[in-house]
DNA sequence: AGCCTTATTTGCATACGTTGCGAATTTGCA
DNA sequence: TGCAAATTCGCAACGTATGCAAATAAGGCT
């Protein structure tokens, strides 16, 4: 996604108006790697602009998506997550905390895909699921972590 | 997904009862490569068993998914699609007709994935989007397809 | 065959995420 | 400043899916 200033220009060029609500969302989204859902963005926006409507958040997200400034990412269940990263990339979703991370895959062309039977793919979306670093650190003790001994209660 | 007969056994072993509704759904799902949604399945089931409830369809799909006999596939927008194919495989979704196809990818291990930063993937889901064979055939005429001439009505 | 416990089915209400609609308001150009 | 056109907002409605509880059915036991 481009900078708030660039988006302001781009919106005006498309006869879209630049309202304070939109400017706030531009700021909240720019460089945001948290993959927020619409309601999370709504909560953040509400703190800075009480009274902003969830409807407006959806509206602006849809406008930005239509302009290719962000993509909506479906990660299994739950609400869509919005991603201002417009690089060609994919996602990893942590099974424990639900966080979404950007990952880059260089050699998708090297995949041996069978069963296309004439299907002509134009895009590939990959979602890795697993455990993020923080969640592994919290729950998987390192080798020298104190451990129950033979004499401790089971 | 196993055969209706095998599922009947498996359900009984888990103290799940084998009702006519479930048996019908076993039959409708076994070997079904159409990736039906719950409501499509409900429509099909209703023809053969008027009065069956949508709630029961969801219930049975959830039971089967919990037993690992089928997987629920999220394809962007729209309802979940159900897939009785338990092979390790992926999906292709036609942008035009919405049909979902199974595809097999052999060498996922060969992917060069960057940006994991300690994320430990345990599963990978890939969705190819594009145009299926039938949709390409219908809309992209071959070179010798009859074509409007200069004199024909627009 | 009949009984009894437990699981299931059904209909309805509800949850959730998202979009439609229309009146009131605001933007941005002239 | 004025005006047309776009936007915001609130609420209703939508599609998908689940919770709940009363009525029903399955299947083991006798």
Walk me through this protein's architecture.
2 copies of one chain form a homodimer. In chain A, a hairpin with a 7-residue loop joins strand 1 (71-73) and strand 2 (81-83). In chain A, helix 2 packs across helix 3 (38-48) and helix 3 packs across helix 4. Chain A is globular, with a radius of gyration of 21 Å. A 3-stranded mixed beta sheet of chain A has the order 4-3-6. Chain A has helices at 4-13, 20-29, 38-48, 54-66, 133-139; strands at residues 71-73, 81-83, 90-94, 100-105, 113-114, 120-131. Chain A has 154 residues and is of the alpha+beta class. At the A-B interface, strand 4, strand 5 and strand 6 of A face strand 4, strand 5 and strand 6 of B. The structure holds a DNA duplex (30 and 30 nucleotides).
Order of helices and strands of chain A: HHHHEEEEEEH
Low-pLDDT stretches of chain A are 145-154
> What pair of chains forms the biggest interface?
A-B, 40 and 40 residues
Oligomeric state, counting identical vs distinct chains: homodimer
**Nearest-angstrom radius of gyration of chain A?**
21 Å
In order across it, which strands form the biggest sheet of chain A? 4-3-6
Q: Tell me what portion of residues of chain A adopts beta-strand conformation.
A: 15-25%
End-to-end distance of chain A: 54 Å
Q: Globular, elongated, flat, extended or rod-shaped: what is the shape of chain A?
A: globular
The biggest sheet of chain A amounts to:
3 strands, mixed
- Count of distinct strands of chain A: 6
- Work out the helicity level of chain A: 25-40%
Mean pLDDT of chain A: 92
Number of helices of chain A: 5
Q: Structural class of the helix and strand makeup of chain A?
A: alpha+beta
